[in-house]
Amino acid sequence: MSKKVVTFGEIMLRLSPPGYQRLVQTDSLDVTYGGGESNVAVSLANYGMQSYFVTKVPQNPLGQSAVNHLRRYGVNVDHTQWGGERLGIYFAETGASQRASVVVYDRANSSIAGIKPGEIDWQTAFAGKDWFHFTGITPALGDDATAVTLEAVKAAKAMGLTVSCDLNYRKKLWSMAKANQVMSGLMEYVDVAVGNEEDAEKVFGIKAQDTDITGGKLSDTGYRQVATQLMERFKLKYVAITLRESFSASENGWSALLYDGQQFVKSREYKIHIVDRVGGGDSFCGALIYALLADYTPQQAVDFAVAASCLKHTIPGDFNHVTLAEVEALAGGDGSGRVQR
Amino acid sequence: MSKKVVTFGEIMLRLSPPGYQRLVQTDSLDVTYGGGESNVAVSLANYGMQSYFVTKVPQNPLGQSAVNHLRRYGVNVDHTQWGGERLGIYFAETGASQRASVVVYDRANSSIAGIKPGEIDWQTAFAGKDWFHFTGITPALGDDATAVTLEAVKAAKAMGLTVSCDLNYRKKLWSMAKANQVMSGLMEYVDVAVGNEEDAEKVFGIKAQDTDITGGKLSDTGYRQVATQLMERFKLKYVAITLRESFSASENGWSALLYDGQQFVKSREYKIHIVDRVGGGDSFCGALIYALLADYTPQQAVDFAVAASCLKHTIPGDFNHVTLAEVEALAGGDGSGRVQR
Amino acid sequence: MSKKVVTFGEIMLRLSPPGYQRLVQTDSLDVTYGGGESNVAVSLANYGMQSYFVTKVPQNPLGQSAVNHLRRYGVNVDHTQWGGERLGIYFAETGASQRASVVVYDRANSSIAGIKPGEIDWQTAFAGKDWFHFTGITPALGDDATAVTLEAVKAAKAMGLTVSCDLNYRKKLWSMAKANQVMSGLMEYVDVAVGNEEDAEKVFGIKAQDTDITGGKLSDTGYRQVATQLMERFKLKYVAITLRESFSASENGWSALLYDGQQFVKSREYKIHIVDRVGGGDSFCGALIYALLADYTPQQAVDFAVAASCLKHTIPGDFNHVTLAEVEALAGGDGSGRVQR
Amino acid sequence: MSKKVVTFGEIMLRLSPPGYQRLVQTDSLDVTYGGGESNVAVSLANYGMQSYFVTKVPQNPLGQSAVNHLRRYGVNVDHTQWGGERLGIYFAETGASQRASVVVYDRANSSIAGIKPGEIDWQTAFAGKDWFHFTGITPALGDDATAVTLEAVKAAKAMGLTVSCDLNYRKKLWSMAKANQVMSGLMEYVDVAVGNEEDAEKVFGIKAQDTDITGGKLSDTGYRQVATQLMERFKLKYVAITLRESFSASENGWSALLYDGQQFVKSREYKIHIVDRVGGGDSFCGALIYALLADYTPQQAVDFAVAASCLKHTIPGDFNHVTLAEVEALAGGDGSGRVQR
Amino acid sequence: MSKKVVTFGEIMLRLSPPGYQRLVQTDSLDVTYGGGESNVAVSLANYGMQSYFVTKVPQNPLGQSAVNHLRRYGVNVDHTQWGGERLGIYFAETGASQRASVVVYDRANSSIAGIKPGEIDWQTAFAGKDWFHFTGITPALGDDATAVTLEAVKAAKAMGLTVSCDLNYRKKLWSMAKANQVMSGLMEYVDVAVGNEEDAEKVFGIKAQDTDITGGKLSDTGYRQVATQLMERFKLKYVAITLRESFSASENGWSALLYDGQQFVKSREYKIHIVDRVGGGDSFCGALIYALLADYTPQQAVDFAVAASCLKHTIPGDFNHVTLAEVEALAGGDGSGRVQR
Amino acid sequence: MSKKVVTFGEIMLRLSPPGYQRLVQTDSLDVTYGGGESNVAVSLANYGMQSYFVTKVPQNPLGQSAVNHLRRYGVNVDHTQWGGERLGIYFAETGASQRASVVVYDRANSSIAGIKPGEIDWQTAFAGKDWFHFTGITPALGDDATAVTLEAVKAAKAMGLTVSCDLNYRKKLWSMAKANQVMSGLMEYVDVAVGNEEDAEKVFGIKAQDTDITGGKLSDTGYRQVATQLMERFKLKYVAITLRESFSASENGWSALLYDGQQFVKSREYKIHIVDRVGGGDSFCGALIYALLADYTPQQAVDFAVAASCLKHTIPGDFNHVTLAEVEALAGGDGSGRVQR
């Protein structure tokens, strides 16, 4: 029987100018919805798992549309809290070549940021579930959101779920000091941590040596040190680190390593021609959770997760609209892009 | 030399589904910008007046785009304050037949709502200007906005500008009691008041008798009473009341009456097939201010203002993209809609 | 606790040229999904009932998208059969004025048309449910589809569900003779029948007298006779007849009458400015089922159902994207279409 | 065997803002191609006649696209002259309600305006053809264009083709005096003249009495006088006059009368909800030529032509994308606009 | 005088999500029409040859639109058979980077698949023509289509036309065994065979040695063996093989070799940044036929054909919208892509 | 206080097919406005300078829209002359890979081409300004335009403005001989000259040795010789040369060198994945003028200008929609394209 995964966080209205237009040029915005944890939930539903997304949205057509968007892609939203002020919004311009993609957040005072401890019935939400996933964004939304996240991880742990966290540091939401303090508390309940090439440093001050991120140079050795420190400090089962080499907004190198406390396994590295880079890390998390729940070996798991997230970079919007078969084909080695008739 | 008019208020990002789609259906939103006072400023610029819009917008691509949109249509934005949290947004669905248009506001915590007394240098803003216009929406944005509006009307009055106010009651922004209290204070400085068929009642409790608004029946007599009471209570020079008969979301009757303390003049009534009804009242105000500054007779003024606003109902977006010649042609009697080659 | 309704039938990919373009002009097609029974299911979900749609779709991105479209609007699709040849398609041009809307069907050999008796586990599908709805389109898809529909109505009846049928005669799918034979057999299990101004005649030869449909003249008396004959012949609880006066493709009169064996109740008649007329009858059925399950009086039920379907005519696509509150407001008398802010 | 009709004139690139946008708002323009004589050619091809369009276009992608657009709809373009400066362009805004549609011409110095006498081999172009049609626009393009038009009508007459002319006065192209002089010379060769409610007056000073065009009042009597005078002055076989009552840009009355020298026959009058009014007169001409070539009676001919052009008003673009069957259905009396499934 | 080429096969409605969207995301589909043989016909018309496309389409707006699309681009469609069930459809997603383009066929039961021997009057269709081209797709549509293709090649051969065949193996349409049997029969009448890097193996079991197609490694030697075997087995005049190195869905290597029984000539190899890869092989065939009919040397012919098809990869849709001059410029060595002003 | 720059020239309506479509395919055109000198004006406004654009446009919605487009992006248009025949138009197809972008001009007889000496009051236009910029396109529009340009440079020089010229040779507008003659006269008044890799040769016959432009090979040495000759011949303060290596329409190398009479400074070279290449050179000029007015060192200036124009290649339309901060970030070395959140 398929495994059940719960994620918790914010879903936002995402508004993007068509093509490569900038916000100051456009008179039309493409509408999708997304957010770290909802993106993970959609990935899991795509692979055939039962996925649940817990959030709070306003009782208006925008809140309804966000929920509808999740339902459309197979995510269970029965635990949605309705109410609060507004749906968070983010504006996303797609960059190209030397011009970076730009994200303008308009997420303050969202319904989920205003959620209060006790609003979510975690006992019900977690009953019969296998896994709980959250990211560093949710507690960063404010003290109430931190408190509710803490409720969640405690309940999940108590009820026997595996808990995973994508560190996902957002400098516009909180300071590094505050992040360190809050996240350190939450990590106590976490089994699987995922981070990218700068999260560990920004959140916990754990730095990869000999690595120049903006310059696009990554050092394996450095990241092994990071993974080791994370695992030791927080008694984790797995640490995964995604490694992005940003040659330009149009072209990235993409790979990851996974550490289970015994060995480091590294994925194949993809050179990606980018369509939409947002949600790349989330698609990695979704696929990694799937792979670990499906009892893949560490090597299989990291290969699957990197292949899945490689494909995400070619799909517009936050969500990773791929099938299990498509990910497996790429993980199995066929990246030729030949037409599938 | 052309007259100079200043308006003050909020400009919002307006997001509308294409055609007659509802928000829950759409995956694209048409982008324009609008708001009562900015709409008036654009109308005045279209007629060749020098129009100035004073506001506060955030220092991001959305604030820049709002300002750009005003510049595009000839409004001077040199007095813009940059800063604050966010640009207000509103979502506007276009209704049809028995389905009403729906406006979903997401304007709380906007930069303009957070403006503080003293931020605007009204002495500079009003130097050499002829007219100041505001609406009941601006003071409804909060106590700070009320205080700044009061600064503005006092300064305008002291500096010899004519002051006009469109009552524009918005029930989502404040209660009738609060509106009555605040607006009564502001009206002390007002020379010209404009309202629609329900504003006077909602704001000041002045009610048109024998009139059933939702049912679409309007009584001239009732509205003359309203105009008389407004004029007496606030010592006004002119009171204008727009009269909308809402047969359906697709078809409205539209006319107005103007009272100068001596006689009531009533415009021709148009039966309008509606394209976009938002901004109808604002286009009336813009045209009325133009006509009064251009020394039209009361009858000419109300005819011009109703013709202008009749045309607005046929144009997508908040702004009234018409030329002086087009308004004059309609006010002069040609509503045949024959192709202009 | 909310009631549970099951519908069964075909969902198709609907492709429409934007605006008023004709198929021979367009180089883009708007994508939605629809079909009589799925449209009913969406209406019920909108009103807060638990609605289930049973169908068969191909295992490809089009079948998946059809299912996703239903999930998006809250319909449970757990009983979907996956397989078969293809998803049925229909092309829909929107007419205007004297130019009729045109539907081009490309639905032959669809997965649902090829469904075999025994494929659906009706025991499971109907367990704990309150109502089953189908239309005359499903059995018209072929002998297998007829057989499965017969399975369904028998099981529904045996399990205590109320059964409703929208006659929905489609001349491109079968002859009147065949329809009469098949539908007569199915009607044996039906409690509530719905038809438009020509279905009863085309399917059962029951004709409204003194009525010229194409000419747009409808006679109440004639339709009462039709309702009476249907009720007597098939021992029904309710007969509802929708009455469309087609002044043009842009403007219709719309009303209905409902007969419970004792009295005839007639709704208010709406004069509708049409945006998209397809799905009008389905939205009537969905709202009628809701009203009857919610124990509305016959007058309330027909008023609710006609108001709901009046609104549908203003919404693009097959589905009726309205809320319970919106329908109630119109049924309660407010058809003024004034902006809802 | 199907009849062969030749038309001669200008085809332009037509650029229109989407929906009801004005030119100053739009950042996208819908592309079609059109022009009086090409529109007639397309109508004839739609009805199954062999239609030929003679023109001159520049040797660039725009000239190629104009030709392609005609080929697409079945018009033979083998006699196209390639060369000259540019393709004429016109910008067309769609009006609504009291706001008129606006056409902005940018057609000066087009390839066809620069055509020289002798460029077209009329002997070849007319060999085996039955009918030649032109409009008052072509000679108005300049003296060269006038000279070539004169070549054409002389050759057509000499070769036994029936010659028709749509007067189509364009005040931006020439004065009434010039039009009178040139058109009087051309009419010598014309058998069938078509005009609207103001052409005869503007071109030949023949005025309908008791008629107020802008006010939308038309008098049958007046138009009969116009038709009689045209016929007598130019020894015509048929005179057709289209009668437009312009209630607004959204709603027109539309009918026509046809005079064969013996009796006046008047069509049914349609009240049209307008989608795109441009090309209305051309679609009348195309249908009238078809009907006369197909030996319809005068009453059948005018009914067919008015039904065809009624439908044109509901179709975006210049061309009348209807089938023979659709026109016949409307001419036969079915204007109910009921969905054709 | 320009040469005349006939092609025969299926034209389908092609529906593609805009940009890089996947089918499960889109709510709009771009419309074009295409198919192997029609694509070749359009190429030939672009180069100034007289090209004819023979097919069967349904008598509905979709069949009409397919025919219109060919007429638009200059293809003669006088031999179209009208009738049958439906127009075949294919859905085409554009891939990027490691994500392959996906084609979903919905072509079963199309009108052309149901064509019967004797329906096409090949004597008339081939009278005065120089060349006949078909692909391996047409006989794969079913036994009737095979029989009609056999009629065609026999008639063509008997009437002295050169016959070319693009092997074009489609695994969804038939098995390798069936393809081998049918194609072997047809090849008896073929003069010029074209295949890609896997057709010869899939259809005739003729395999390039030392070549790993999915891995993107191609061996010249291997392909020379393939060409030699094909020529010997079927007594051909020319064998052309296109060589695609699929680095990713965004980037391919593209070249070809041509064998005339005496020497192997190889084209320049292009590294292509792909816009739309579908129709690449067809554009090669069209250009090759042109070049051979225009008496190019083998080297000129293969260079022209590869340059033409290189350009096709940069153009959306199936058809190769290029001019003779553009192909010659690239074949002549200018691939710099500098702006042509 | 911010510096004031005046530019003078033509602004055109730019019409582009969406995406990579060709003109013969499209039925929609994206609308922007642009032209060499207006593009420079927009760049300067973006960096916070006061920029003024002097031109002449027709008094119609297209002229108005061109002016509006400049106002939108902060350019002062108070010196616009209204009148003349038409707004120039250019059609721009976006190329890809080996397919070049194509520009089709339709600019003859534009209002600005018809401007007469004396129409512009240069004394007023230049009062209080710091810099005047023009390009080789303006004098190429005709003898009148040449005369007015000569008026401008003389007045600018006399009033103490720095004068810059982008050579910008356009072979469709004039011959090399004519260009040489006219431009030599104008250069007498120029302080700063900008050219690309072929302008100096085409206009003045000054050729870079050892350089094959179409083949994409550039030699530093050669360009130093060109710069030296230009400086000596025209007594310039600065000569800047942009160096484009056109690998394909999708990928270019981009750099520049700046010579101040003493030293040659060369920028970093960017390898650009191109979105829209039109306006690349103009964005270089705008940034260079900014940098020189802001007293950057030569190295800083050329680095800033090349970074700015590198970014332009990633933005649709003629204008360079970037902020000062974005250019500085790239000039400072961050070309990683990492998402800016």
Brief descriptors of the model:
four-stranded mixed β-sheet, 341 residues, homohexamer, UDP-N-acetylmuramoyl-L-alanine:D-glutamate ligase, alpha/beta, nine-stranded mixed β-sheet
Describe it.
Six copies of one chain form a homohexamer. In chain A, helix 1 (36-46) crosses helix 9 (280-293). The model of chain A has no long low-confidence stretch (mean pLDDT 95). Chain A has a single domain (4-331), classed as Ribokinase (UDP-N-acetylmuramoyl-L-alanine:D-glutamate ligase, 3-Layer(aba) Sandwich), CATH 3.40.1190.20. Chain A has eleven helices and 15 strands. Helix content of chain A is 35%, strand content 22%. In chain A, strands 1, 4, 9, 10, 11, 12, 13, 14 and 15 form a nine-stranded mixed sheet that branches. In chain A, strands 3-2-7-8 form a four-stranded mixed sheet. A two-stranded parallel ribbon of chain A has the order 5-6. The first copy, chain A, has 341 residues and is an alpha/beta fold. Chain A starts with a strand and ends in a 10-residue tail after the last helix. In chain A, strand 12 and strand 13 (251-259) form a beta hairpin. The first copy, chain A, has helices at residues 36-46, 61-72, 122-126, 137-140, 143-158, 176-187, 199-204, 220-234, 280-293, 298-312, 324-331; strands spanning 4-8, 12-16, 28-34, 50-54, 56-57, 81-82, 89-93, 102-106, 131-135, 162-166, 192-195, 238-246, 251-259, 264-266, 270-273. Chains in contact: A-B, A-C, A-E, A-F, B-C, B-D, B-F, C-D, C-E, D-E, D-F, E-F. The B-D interface holds B 18-19, 73, 270, 272-276, 307, 310-311, 313-317, 321-322, 326, 330, 334-341 and D 19-22, 24-25, 95-103, 105, 170-172, 214-216, 246-251, 277-278.
